[in-house]
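Hello forum,

I keep getting stuck at the same step: I have a sequence, I want structure tokens, and every attempt I make locally crashes halfway through. Rather than fight my setup again tonight, could one of you with a working pipeline run this one for me? It's a single chain of 278 residues.
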Amino acid sequence: MVYIGMTLMLGFSAVNTGNNLLYLLVSALLGFMAISGLLGQQNLQGVTAEIVQPDEIYAEAPTLIVARIRNCRRWLPGFLLRVELPEGGALFPVVESRGELSRSLPLTPARRGWQALPPLWVSSRFPISFFVRSRRLPDQPELLVFPAQLRCSPALASGEQQGGHSFSLTRPGTSGELQSIGDYQGVESLKDIHWKLSARHDILKVKRLGSEGQRPVLLDPASIPGKDLEERLGRCCYLVNHLLGNHQPVGLQLPDKVIAPDLGTSHRLRLLRELALL
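Reply #2:
Ran it on my machine without issues. Output:
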């Protein structure tokens, strides 16, 4: 603002006095301002940005999402680029030609389910902060937000409180009950060979044992205590993460289907997605 005000003042002075030196000075100042604007506009050309979808994001919980900026120009780098959301932004001092960088942006979703991201902007003060050039980027894909977790007692997940559903979950192991008899593959321990059956056949037979684990649990959101659906889903979300974190198989009893108890990250994310879309 000081620069623009000084330029205008010198311009009025040049017109009033007819001083050629002032005309030259004002011309230089205006030319420098024009070049700065053109460089700033050129700095944003060929620059794109996108939001990398996180694996997990929960309603009402501050989180960080990753913004990835890409410079598609062949020769020129990008300078002082800033990617912004309403809750904050991230500065990329230099992005090399045909290069990309990633930074974290803050985001706090208000509710669960599919959520559209706020408008994403890329701006730059290059070269000397005379102007802030900005450009709105294309709309990003929606984010699937999981229910806000509400801490509760794991006792809510007992089988009796979930309608008495009974599931058995067997996995390969060395200390559980006998599951089946199979052919020897060369990798089994010698103590697992069933010698009596092997004597009756031409090949070695081995015992397939299960693993000892905790009792599977089937969560029914309709049976979880809570004043409304959101509170019940929040407690179910917490129980899914808590129980699976303790290696206890968890499933879901939904109005239109039943997801059998299981373990693993992919299974946990599937349960959370189902709760988010319920």
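The longest helix spans residues 20-44. If your local run keeps crashing, start a new thread with the error log.
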